[in-house]
């Protein structure tokens, strides 16, 4: 293991010399600087793991020096040193997250040893926590999300802009299974709030009173079973994100309370009298048409307009078939690893079915189908025999939709009929090739080949 590196910053020669001598005995690599300016230059050349920093320095003082060091490396830890007369300044410095302790001069070297060891333990623990957080964030990087279709590329472009904008209220819409939760987590874990809590709740899964308690918390004695104080999700997520899934199922009375939180940034616990201020990003998601719910009186218009300032719509899988095969390959990799299998691909017949199936359950349904196929398959390629019977039956029904055409006695030019159908599909789709290909139950690539064949590009 590499030796820990410590930078000692003090304007007294004797302190720098004695600290270097004592810390070197403990097998630390020691650097010294007599001023804030010199400390910053040495930090740039050779960043240490820990800084021992005098509060009072000539020119740039210790706190100013530490602020400049943080601009270079924000997670640097520091121990402040101070004479008894300036302890107040050291205590003030302790409010900075990076300052883990302080030492009073003259320094006892046994105390120095303990304080430095503790600080370096904190440094290692924070490194581990950061590594775990980075690992947790990995699935939510754009590189790990499948988006070959233009529609999903547009979604990610919007998500990227939302992250940069630091918007506080976001509405994510789309059918069940399209990945609304994935978008919400991506926004959180790629934003400046990534190290703070991400709290999620399904508004459709709980009755109104229980949902209110979960969101707002409650005071001890607020109701019969409230035997102790409970913090709600809004409070627990302070400086982080709250994800309200299926917000279209929230009752109007609770919608009014949510609107107050959004507008005022404070709330009261159930049974409480005091306002609790919070700094939270709210991401709401729904598979319902909120505009229609507003028209029917089931959803508050004022809340809808407040949520709908920034809206992200995730298209269903049937409208972005270009993503199906890349998703299949992605899930093959994931489930091969989980189940210690080596299924490399799918057979042409299974591929044809999966590419043309309508996927009412969207990406979630596709993921479940691939998981099932991997579990059942013992070959390196799975075929349609590994697909669920209900999926095959639904696909067969679509396939059996036959147009009643009588063949003339003198025959027919099939190419002319195909060309006319392609033209009609383009006309109905107003030139949109993706929509036109769906009308003919073709993949977009197959449709484009026909466009080239009939000089319609």
UniProtKB/TrEMBL annotation:
Source lineage: Bacteria, Candidatus Schekmaniibacteriota
Record-annotated Response regulatory domain positions: 5-120
PANTHER family: ALGINATE BIOSYNTHESIS TRANSCRIPTIONAL REGULATORY PROTEIN ALGB (PTHR32071:SF113), TRANSCRIPTIONAL REGULATORY PROTEIN (PTHR32071)
Modified residues (4-aspartylphosphate): 54
A family per Pfam: HTH_8
Signal peptide from the UniProt entry: none
Alphabetized UniProt keyword annotations: Activator, ATP-binding, DNA-binding, Nucleotide-binding, Phosphoprotein, Transcription, Transcription regulation
GO terms, molecular function: ATP binding; sequence-specific DNA binding
The name this protein goes by in its record: Fis family transcriptional regulator
GO biological-process terms attached to the record: phosphorelay signal transduction system; regulation of DNA-templated transcription
Organism: Candidatus Schekmanbacteria bacterium GWA2_38_11
Limits of the Sigma-54 factor interaction domain: 145-375
InterPro entries: AAA+_ATPase (IPR003593), AAA_lid_NorR (IPR058031), CheY-like_superfamily (IPR011006), Homeodomain-like_sf (IPR009057), HTH_Fis (IPR002197), P-loop_NTPase (IPR027417), Sig_transdc_resp-reg_receiver (IPR001789), Sigma_54_int (IPR002078)
Record Gene3D superfamilies: 1.10.8.60, 3.40.50.2300, Homeodomain-like, P-loop containing nucleotide triphosphate hydrolases
């Amino acid at each position: 293991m590499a030796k820990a590196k410590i930078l000692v910053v003090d304007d007294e020669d004797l302190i720098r010399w004695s600290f270097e001598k004592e810390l070197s005995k403990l097998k630390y690599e020691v650097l010294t600087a007599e001023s804030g300016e010199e400390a910053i230059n040495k930090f740039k050349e050779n960043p240490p793991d820990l800084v021992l920093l005098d509060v009072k320095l000539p020119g740039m003082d210790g706190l100013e020096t530490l602020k400049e060091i943080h601009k270079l490396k924000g997670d640097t830890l520091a121990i402040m040193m101070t004479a008894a007369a300036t302890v107040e300044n050291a205590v003030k410095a302790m409010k900075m997250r990076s300052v883990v302790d302080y030492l009073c001069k003259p320094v006892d070297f046994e105390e120095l040893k303990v304080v430095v060891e503790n600080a370096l333990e904190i440094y290692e623990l924070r490194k581990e926590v950061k590594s775990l957080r980075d690992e947790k964030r990995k699935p939510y990087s754009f590189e790990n999300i499948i988006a070959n279709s233009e529609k999903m590329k547009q979604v990610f472009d919007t998500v990227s802009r939302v992250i940069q904008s630091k918007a506080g209220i976001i509405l994510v819409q789309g059918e069940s299974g399209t990945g609304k939760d994935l978008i919400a987590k991506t926004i959180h874990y790629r934003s400046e709030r990534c190290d703070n809590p991400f709290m999620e709740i399904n508004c459709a899964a709980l009755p109104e009173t229980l949902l209110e308690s979960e969101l707002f918390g409650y005071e001890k004695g607020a109701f019969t079973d409230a035997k102790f104080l409970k913090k709600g999700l809004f409070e627990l997520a302070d400086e982080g994100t709250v994800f309200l899934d299926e917000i279209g199922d929230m009752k109007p009375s609770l919608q009014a309370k949510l609107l107050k939180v959004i507008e005022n940034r404070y709330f009261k616990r159930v049974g409480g009298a005091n306002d609790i201020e919070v700094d939270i990003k709210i991401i709401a998601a729904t598979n319902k048409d909120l505009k229609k719910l507003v028209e029917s009186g089931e959803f508050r218009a004022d809340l809808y307009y407040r949520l709908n300032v920034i809206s992200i719509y995730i298209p269903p899988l049937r409208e972005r078939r270009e993503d199906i095969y890349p998703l299949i390959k992605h899930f093959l990799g994931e489930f091969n690893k989980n189940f210690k299998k080596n299924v490399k691909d799918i057979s042409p017949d299974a591929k044809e079915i999966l590419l043309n199936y309508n996927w009412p359950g969207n990406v979630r349904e596709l993921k479940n189908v691939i998981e099932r196929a991997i579990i059942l398959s013992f070959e390196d390629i799975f075929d349609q025999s590994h697909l669920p019977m209900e999926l095959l039956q639904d696909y067969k029904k679509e396939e059996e939709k036959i147009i009643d055409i009588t063949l003339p006695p003198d025959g027919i030019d099939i190419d002319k009929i195909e060309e006319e159908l392609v033209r009609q599909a383009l006309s109905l789709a107003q030139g949109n090739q993706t929509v036109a290909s769906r009308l003919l139950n073709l993949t977009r690539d197959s449709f484009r080949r026909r466009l080239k064949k009939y000089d319609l590009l």
